[in-house]
Amino acid sequence: MSTNNSTGPRWSGRRAQAARMLAAGMSIAHVAAVLGLSPATARRYQSVFATGGADALIGLGDVGRRPRLTADRLAQMVDAIRQSPHRAGLAAERWTNPLIQRYIEREFQISYSYSHINRLIRDHGLQHWIHEA
User: Fold this and answer.
1) How many CB atoms lie within 10 A of CB 21?
2) So where are the chain's domains?
3) pTM flag (> 0.90)
């Protein structure tokens, strides 16, 4: 688990924002869209928030599958995206989510969903290297 003593686990900021949004009565769909969550995750957040409040939501442990890309492979992917797709042997001018999916499948034999690709892009600050498809 990645933590920072001053801010807590890497996910706590987004969960705190979700708690504020849910407390303000915002819909699950809106919370999911604004925070880049799946609807299922937003529903889980709402359920935890409804039963235990903001502290329960922020303190919710890291859930979900364990990463399938090792730290080294993830670093390789991030480095590739920060450069031209041509350098990675791809015939494209700009990176797109589908192109990143193909790159990961080709290089690491791992298939990720579109939403997981979005998470990787967001979590690694790669948004300004990506063009919408």
Assistant:
1) 20
2) 3-59, 71-129
3) no
